[in-house]
Write a structure and sequence with these properties.
about 375 residues; mainly alpha; Growth Hormone, Chain: A; 2 domains; 18 helices; about 80% helix; transmembrane; Myo-inositol_Transporter; Sugar/inositol_transpt; transmembrane transporter activity; Sugar porter family MFS transporter
Protein backbone atom coordinates (compact mmCIF):
# COMPACT_ATOMS: atom_id res chain seq x y z
CA UNK A 1 0.00 0.00 0.00
CA UNK A 2 2.98 2.34 0.42
CA UNK A 3 3.42 2.81 -3.33
CA UNK A 4 -0.16 3.94 -4.00
CA UNK A 5 -0.03 6.08 -0.83
CA UNK A 6 3.10 7.80 -2.16
CA UNK A 7 1.17 8.62 -5.35
CA UNK A 8 -1.40 10.40 -3.19
CA UNK A 9 0.74 11.92 -0.43
CA UNK A 10 4.14 12.35 -2.06
CA UNK A 11 7.39 10.41 -2.16
CA UNK A 12 9.03 12.42 0.64
CA UNK A 13 6.15 11.92 3.06
CA UNK A 14 6.09 8.21 2.21
CA UNK A 15 9.78 7.95 3.14
CA UNK A 16 9.29 9.96 6.34
CA UNK A 17 6.40 7.74 7.45
CA UNK A 18 8.39 4.59 6.65
CA UNK A 19 11.40 5.83 8.63
CA UNK A 20 9.12 6.67 11.56
CA UNK A 21 7.71 3.13 11.52
CA UNK A 22 11.29 1.81 11.44
CA UNK A 23 12.19 3.84 14.52
CA UNK A 24 9.05 2.84 16.43
CA UNK A 25 9.49 -0.82 15.50
CA UNK A 26 13.13 -0.85 16.60
CA UNK A 27 12.36 0.76 19.95
CA UNK A 28 9.37 -1.53 20.52
CA UNK A 29 11.51 -4.58 19.73
CA UNK A 30 14.22 -3.45 22.13
CA UNK A 31 11.76 -2.93 24.98
CA UNK A 32 9.46 -5.88 24.24
CA UNK A 33 8.19 -7.43 27.45
CA UNK A 34 6.83 -10.64 25.96
CA UNK A 35 7.34 -12.87 22.93
CA UNK A 36 4.02 -11.65 21.50
CA UNK A 37 5.12 -8.01 21.76
CA UNK A 38 8.43 -8.86 20.12
CA UNK A 39 6.70 -10.63 17.23
CA UNK A 40 4.32 -7.69 16.76
CA UNK A 41 7.24 -5.26 16.78
CA UNK A 42 9.12 -7.32 14.22
CA UNK A 43 6.02 -7.39 12.01
CA UNK A 44 5.95 -3.59 12.23
CA UNK A 45 9.57 -3.51 11.08
CA UNK A 46 8.63 -5.80 8.22
CA UNK A 47 5.96 -3.34 7.12
CA UNK A 48 8.56 -0.57 7.13
CA UNK A 49 10.94 -2.64 5.01
CA UNK A 50 8.17 -3.32 2.49
CA UNK A 51 7.24 0.36 2.41
CA UNK A 52 10.72 1.71 1.71
CA UNK A 53 11.26 -0.77 -1.12
CA UNK A 54 8.20 0.70 -2.81
CA UNK A 55 8.96 4.38 -2.28
CA UNK A 56 12.71 5.08 -2.18
CA UNK A 57 13.68 3.58 -5.59
CA UNK A 58 10.90 5.57 -7.27
CA UNK A 59 11.94 8.76 -5.46
CA UNK A 60 15.55 8.38 -6.61
CA UNK A 61 14.60 7.41 -10.17
CA UNK A 62 12.32 10.44 -10.55
CA UNK A 63 15.04 12.85 -9.40
CA UNK A 64 18.09 11.32 -11.09
CA UNK A 65 19.30 12.30 -14.57
CA UNK A 66 18.81 9.53 -17.14
CA UNK A 67 22.54 9.01 -17.68
CA UNK A 68 23.17 8.26 -13.98
CA UNK A 69 19.80 6.93 -12.89
CA UNK A 70 20.98 3.31 -12.76
CA UNK A 71 23.87 3.79 -10.36
CA UNK A 72 21.90 6.22 -8.21
CA UNK A 73 18.98 3.82 -7.72
CA UNK A 74 21.38 0.92 -7.09
CA UNK A 75 22.72 2.90 -4.12
CA UNK A 76 19.48 1.79 -2.43
CA UNK A 77 20.40 -1.87 -2.97
CA UNK A 78 23.92 -1.11 -1.73
CA UNK A 79 22.37 0.25 1.47
CA UNK A 80 20.42 -3.02 1.86
CA UNK A 81 23.44 -5.30 1.47
CA UNK A 82 25.53 -2.92 3.58
CA UNK A 83 22.88 -3.31 6.27
CA UNK A 84 23.14 -7.10 6.02
CA UNK A 85 26.90 -6.84 6.55
CA UNK A 86 26.47 -4.39 9.43
CA UNK A 87 23.91 -6.64 11.12
CA UNK A 88 26.31 -9.59 10.82
CA UNK A 89 29.06 -7.57 12.49
CA UNK A 90 26.72 -6.38 15.25
CA UNK A 91 25.55 -9.96 15.77
CA UNK A 92 29.15 -11.07 16.23
CA UNK A 93 29.85 -8.16 18.55
CA UNK A 94 26.83 -8.68 20.79
CA UNK A 95 26.30 -12.42 20.33
CA UNK A 96 28.37 -13.44 23.32
CA UNK A 97 26.79 -10.90 25.66
CA UNK A 98 23.20 -11.96 25.01
CA UNK A 99 22.23 -8.28 24.77
CA UNK A 100 19.62 -8.71 22.07
CA UNK A 101 17.78 -5.58 23.20
CA UNK A 102 20.71 -3.37 22.23
CA UNK A 103 20.91 -5.21 18.91
CA UNK A 104 17.34 -4.21 18.11
CA UNK A 105 17.74 -0.70 19.51
CA UNK A 106 20.61 0.03 17.12
CA UNK A 107 18.07 -0.13 14.29
CA UNK A 108 16.94 3.33 15.37
CA UNK A 109 20.22 4.84 14.13
CA UNK A 110 19.69 4.54 10.34
CA UNK A 111 16.01 5.46 10.75
CA UNK A 112 16.99 8.61 12.66
CA UNK A 113 19.58 9.55 10.04
CA UNK A 114 16.97 9.17 7.29
CA UNK A 115 14.41 11.21 9.22
CA UNK A 116 16.93 13.96 9.93
CA UNK A 117 17.96 14.22 6.27
CA UNK A 118 14.53 14.30 4.62
CA UNK A 119 13.70 17.97 5.44
CA UNK A 120 16.72 18.97 3.36
CA UNK A 121 15.76 16.90 0.30
CA UNK A 122 13.30 17.96 -2.42
CA UNK A 123 10.03 16.31 -3.36
CA UNK A 124 9.97 14.40 -6.63
CA UNK A 125 9.24 16.85 -9.46
CA UNK A 126 7.22 14.16 -11.21
CA UNK A 127 4.96 13.85 -8.17
CA UNK A 128 4.31 17.58 -8.42
CA UNK A 129 3.43 17.14 -12.11
CA UNK A 130 1.06 14.36 -11.09
CA UNK A 131 -0.66 16.88 -8.80
CA UNK A 132 -0.56 19.73 -11.38
CA UNK A 133 1.88 21.75 -9.27
CA UNK A 134 3.96 22.69 -12.28
CA UNK A 135 5.76 25.73 -10.86
CA UNK A 136 7.10 23.65 -7.98
CA UNK A 137 8.08 20.85 -10.35
CA UNK A 138 10.02 23.30 -12.53
CA UNK A 139 11.77 24.85 -9.52
CA UNK A 140 13.02 21.45 -8.33
CA UNK A 141 14.13 20.40 -11.81
CA UNK A 142 16.02 23.68 -12.19
CA UNK A 143 17.76 23.14 -8.84
CA UNK A 144 18.77 19.51 -9.45
CA UNK A 145 19.71 19.94 -13.13
CA UNK A 146 21.41 23.32 -12.66
CA UNK A 147 19.93 24.77 -15.85
CA UNK A 148 16.62 26.47 -16.60
CA UNK A 149 16.72 25.30 -20.21
CA UNK A 150 17.30 21.67 -19.22
CA UNK A 151 14.59 21.88 -16.57
CA UNK A 152 12.12 23.35 -19.06
CA UNK A 153 12.87 20.66 -21.64
CA UNK A 154 12.45 17.87 -19.08
CA UNK A 155 9.19 19.33 -17.78
CA UNK A 156 7.91 19.61 -21.34
CA UNK A 157 8.76 15.94 -21.95
CA UNK A 158 6.90 14.90 -18.79
CA UNK A 159 3.83 16.92 -19.79
CA UNK A 160 3.91 15.48 -23.32
CA UNK A 161 2.87 12.04 -22.06
CA UNK A 162 -0.88 11.30 -22.01
CA UNK A 163 -2.62 12.08 -18.71
CA UNK A 164 -4.25 8.89 -17.45
CA UNK A 165 -6.46 8.06 -14.48
CA UNK A 166 -3.90 6.08 -12.48
CA UNK A 167 -6.37 3.30 -11.65
CA UNK A 168 -5.63 -0.32 -10.83
CA UNK A 169 -7.48 -1.19 -14.04
CA UNK A 170 -4.83 0.72 -16.01
CA UNK A 171 -2.03 -1.16 -14.23
CA UNK A 172 -3.49 -4.51 -15.32
CA UNK A 173 -4.46 -3.35 -18.82
CA UNK A 174 -2.92 -5.00 -21.92
CA UNK A 175 -0.93 -1.84 -22.65
CA UNK A 176 0.87 -1.91 -19.27
CA UNK A 177 1.15 -5.70 -19.05
CA UNK A 178 4.68 -5.86 -20.56
CA UNK A 179 5.97 -3.51 -17.85
CA UNK A 180 4.20 -5.49 -15.13
CA UNK A 181 5.69 -8.74 -16.43
CA UNK A 182 9.18 -7.23 -16.61
CA UNK A 183 9.07 -5.63 -13.16
CA UNK A 184 7.43 -8.50 -11.29
CA UNK A 185 9.40 -11.10 -13.23
CA UNK A 186 12.80 -9.65 -12.36
CA UNK A 187 11.67 -9.43 -8.72
CA UNK A 188 10.50 -13.05 -8.74
CA UNK A 189 13.64 -14.39 -10.38
CA UNK A 190 15.83 -12.41 -7.99
CA UNK A 191 14.46 -14.69 -5.28
CA UNK A 192 13.82 -18.06 -6.92
CA UNK A 193 17.35 -18.12 -8.40
CA UNK A 194 18.48 -18.77 -4.82
CA UNK A 195 19.93 -15.42 -3.74
CA UNK A 196 18.59 -15.26 -0.22
CA UNK A 197 18.62 -19.04 0.17
CA UNK A 198 22.41 -19.01 -0.13
CA UNK A 199 22.75 -15.96 2.13
CA UNK A 200 20.52 -17.43 4.85
CA UNK A 201 22.00 -20.93 4.74
CA UNK A 202 25.64 -20.25 3.82
CA UNK A 203 26.91 -21.36 7.27
CA UNK A 204 24.91 -24.60 6.98
CA UNK A 205 26.20 -25.24 3.45
CA UNK A 206 29.81 -24.68 4.44
CA UNK A 207 29.49 -26.69 7.63
CA UNK A 208 28.23 -29.56 5.45
CA UNK A 209 31.26 -29.01 3.23
CA UNK A 210 33.46 -29.78 6.22
CA UNK A 211 34.68 -26.32 7.17
CA UNK A 212 33.38 -26.64 10.74
CA UNK A 213 30.72 -24.56 12.49
CA UNK A 214 33.11 -21.83 13.59
CA UNK A 215 34.59 -21.39 10.11
CA UNK A 216 31.11 -21.43 8.58
CA UNK A 217 29.97 -18.61 10.85
CA UNK A 218 33.07 -16.64 9.91
CA UNK A 219 32.12 -17.27 6.31
CA UNK A 220 28.79 -15.54 6.94
CA UNK A 221 30.85 -12.38 7.42
CA UNK A 222 32.72 -13.16 4.21
CA UNK A 223 29.38 -13.58 2.43
CA UNK A 224 28.34 -10.15 3.71
CA UNK A 225 31.52 -8.60 2.31
CA UNK A 226 31.07 -10.49 -0.97
CA UNK A 227 27.53 -9.25 -1.60
CA UNK A 228 28.63 -5.68 -0.91
CA UNK A 229 31.47 -6.07 -3.43
CA UNK A 230 29.08 -7.67 -5.93
CA UNK A 231 26.67 -4.75 -5.61
CA UNK A 232 29.48 -2.23 -6.07
CA UNK A 233 30.55 -4.07 -9.23
CA UNK A 234 27.00 -3.96 -10.59
CA UNK A 235 26.62 -0.31 -9.60
CA UNK A 236 29.83 0.61 -11.42
CA UNK A 237 28.74 -0.85 -14.77
CA UNK A 238 24.93 -0.61 -14.80
CA UNK A 239 24.89 2.75 -16.59
CA UNK A 240 27.65 1.76 -19.04
CA UNK A 241 26.47 -1.74 -19.91
CA UNK A 242 22.78 -1.32 -19.18
CA UNK A 243 20.47 -3.27 -16.88
CA UNK A 244 19.51 -5.93 -19.41
CA UNK A 245 23.06 -6.43 -20.65
CA UNK A 246 24.40 -6.72 -17.10
CA UNK A 247 21.97 -9.54 -16.32
CA UNK A 248 22.57 -11.30 -19.64
CA UNK A 249 26.35 -11.26 -19.06
CA UNK A 250 26.39 -12.26 -15.38
CA UNK A 251 23.54 -14.77 -14.99
CA UNK A 252 25.25 -17.54 -17.03
CA UNK A 253 28.28 -17.32 -14.74
CA UNK A 254 25.97 -17.50 -11.72
CA UNK A 255 24.42 -20.67 -13.16
CA UNK A 256 27.85 -22.23 -13.77
CA UNK A 257 28.86 -21.37 -10.19
CA UNK A 258 25.80 -23.21 -8.89
CA UNK A 259 26.68 -26.21 -11.06
CA UNK A 260 30.09 -26.26 -9.34
CA UNK A 261 28.39 -26.08 -5.95
CA UNK A 262 26.00 -28.85 -6.93
CA UNK A 263 28.69 -31.14 -8.35
CA UNK A 264 30.82 -30.78 -5.22
CA UNK A 265 27.98 -32.34 -3.18
CA UNK A 266 27.35 -35.32 -5.46
CA UNK A 267 27.84 -38.48 -3.45
CA UNK A 268 27.54 -36.70 -0.11
CA UNK A 269 29.27 -33.91 1.73
CA UNK A 270 32.43 -32.81 -0.10
CA UNK A 271 35.89 -33.67 1.14
CA UNK A 272 39.37 -32.67 0.06
CA UNK A 273 39.53 -30.40 -2.98
CA UNK A 274 35.74 -30.61 -3.43
CA UNK A 275 35.33 -28.50 -0.27
CA UNK A 276 37.07 -25.62 -2.03
CA UNK A 277 35.03 -26.20 -5.18
CA UNK A 278 31.91 -25.79 -3.04
CA UNK A 279 33.22 -22.55 -1.53
CA UNK A 280 34.23 -21.22 -4.97
CA UNK A 281 30.80 -22.05 -6.36
CA UNK A 282 29.06 -20.35 -3.45
CA UNK A 283 31.08 -17.14 -3.62
CA UNK A 284 31.07 -17.07 -7.43
CA UNK A 285 27.31 -17.33 -7.39
CA UNK A 286 27.00 -14.46 -4.92
CA UNK A 287 29.18 -12.20 -7.08
CA UNK A 288 27.45 -12.87 -10.39
CA UNK A 289 23.85 -13.26 -9.26
CA UNK A 290 23.73 -10.47 -6.70
CA UNK A 291 25.90 -8.31 -8.95
CA UNK A 292 23.28 -8.53 -11.70
CA UNK A 293 19.67 -9.44 -11.01
CA UNK A 294 19.70 -8.22 -7.40
CA UNK A 295 21.18 -4.95 -8.64
CA UNK A 296 18.33 -4.67 -11.16
CA UNK A 297 15.32 -5.48 -8.93
CA UNK A 298 14.37 -2.03 -7.69
CA UNK A 299 15.88 -0.23 -10.68
CA UNK A 300 13.77 -1.99 -13.30
CA UNK A 301 10.67 -1.65 -11.13
CA UNK A 302 11.20 2.09 -10.67
CA UNK A 303 11.77 2.70 -14.39
CA UNK A 304 9.21 0.74 -16.36
CA UNK A 305 5.83 2.06 -15.17
CA UNK A 306 4.10 5.26 -16.35
CA UNK A 307 3.96 8.16 -13.92
CA UNK A 308 0.22 7.82 -13.25
CA UNK A 309 0.62 4.29 -11.83
CA UNK A 310 4.29 4.20 -10.84
CA UNK A 311 3.48 3.79 -7.15
CA UNK A 312 0.96 1.02 -7.81
CA UNK A 313 3.35 -0.72 -10.18
CA UNK A 314 6.18 -0.59 -7.66
CA UNK A 315 3.89 -2.05 -5.00
CA UNK A 316 3.38 -5.10 -7.24
CA UNK A 317 7.14 -5.42 -7.77
CA UNK A 318 7.67 -5.34 -4.00
CA UNK A 319 4.86 -7.87 -3.50
CA UNK A 320 6.52 -10.24 -5.97
CA UNK A 321 9.93 -9.80 -4.34
CA UNK A 322 8.85 -10.35 -0.73
CA UNK A 323 6.34 -13.11 -1.52
CA UNK A 324 8.93 -15.22 -3.33
CA UNK A 325 11.55 -14.36 -0.69
CA UNK A 326 9.20 -15.87 1.90
CA UNK A 327 8.48 -18.93 -0.23
CA UNK A 328 12.17 -19.63 -0.87
CA UNK A 329 13.08 -19.08 2.79
CA UNK A 330 10.40 -21.53 3.94
CA UNK A 331 11.15 -24.22 1.37
CA UNK A 332 14.94 -24.29 0.90
CA UNK A 333 15.72 -26.75 3.70
CA UNK A 334 12.81 -28.95 2.64
CA UNK A 335 14.12 -28.80 -0.93
CA UNK A 336 17.56 -29.88 0.28
CA UNK A 337 16.00 -32.70 2.31
CA UNK A 338 14.01 -33.98 -0.69
CA UNK A 339 16.57 -33.47 -3.49
CA UNK A 340 19.81 -33.46 -1.56
CA UNK A 341 22.20 -30.51 -1.57
CA UNK A 342 23.46 -31.39 -5.05
CA UNK A 343 19.93 -31.64 -6.44
CA UNK A 344 18.72 -28.43 -4.80
CA UNK A 345 21.55 -26.30 -6.14
CA UNK A 346 21.34 -28.02 -9.51
CA UNK A 347 17.71 -26.88 -9.60
CA UNK A 348 18.75 -23.33 -8.70
CA UNK A 349 21.27 -23.46 -11.58
CA UNK A 350 18.46 -24.32 -13.99
CA UNK A 351 16.35 -21.48 -12.60
CA UNK A 352 19.23 -19.06 -13.22
CA UNK A 353 19.26 -20.25 -16.83
CA UNK A 354 15.49 -19.66 -16.98
CA UNK A 355 16.05 -16.16 -15.57
CA UNK A 356 18.49 -15.46 -18.41
CA UNK A 357 15.84 -16.49 -20.95
CA UNK A 358 13.23 -14.32 -19.24
CA UNK A 359 15.49 -11.26 -19.28
CA UNK A 360 16.40 -11.87 -22.92
CA UNK A 361 12.72 -12.12 -23.88
CA UNK A 362 10.84 -9.73 -21.60
CA UNK A 363 13.13 -7.04 -20.17
CA UNK A 364 13.94 -3.99 -22.32
CA UNK A 365 17.16 -2.03 -22.12
CA UNK A 366 16.46 1.25 -20.31
CA UNK A 367 20.02 2.56 -20.14
CA UNK A 368 20.22 6.29 -20.91
CA UNK A 369 16.49 6.61 -21.64
CA UNK A 370 14.36 9.09 -19.75
CA UNK A 371 11.38 7.80 -17.78
CA UNK A 372 9.17 9.52 -20.34
CA UNK A 373 10.87 7.74 -23.25
CA UNK A 374 10.22 4.42 -21.49
CA UNK A 375 6.59 5.42 -20.91
CA UNK A 376 6.23 6.39 -24.58
CA UNK A 377 7.51 2.95 -25.62
CA UNK A 378 4.66 1.39 -23.62
CA UNK A 379 2.09 3.71 -25.17
CA UNK A 380 3.39 2.92 -28.66
CA UNK A 381 3.57 -0.86 -28.14
CA UNK A 382 7.36 -1.18 -28.55
CA UNK A 383 8.32 -1.67 -24.88
CA UNK A 384 10.02 -5.08 -25.15
CA UNK A 385 11.59 -4.70 -28.60
CA UNK A 386 15.35 -5.16 -28.55
Amino acid sequence: AAGPAADRLGRRLGIILSATIFAVGSIASAYAGSPLTLVASRLLLGLAVGAVTQVIPVYIAELAPAARRGSMVVLFQLAIVGGILASTIVGWWLGGSGNWRLMFALGVVPAAVLLASMPFLPESPRYFVLKDRLAEAFAILRDVRGSEAEAAAELEAILAQPREDGSWALLFSPKIRPALIAGMGVAMFSQITGTNATIYYAPTILASAGFGAGAALATQLAIGVTIVIATIIGLSVVDRWGRRTLMLRFLPVAAISLVLLSVSFIGGNPTGAARYTAAAGLFGYEIFNIGSISVAIWLVGAEVFPLAIRGKGMSMVALSHWLFDLIVSLTTLTLVAKLGTAGAFGLFALINAAAWLFVWRAVPETKGRSLEEIEASLNEGRFARH
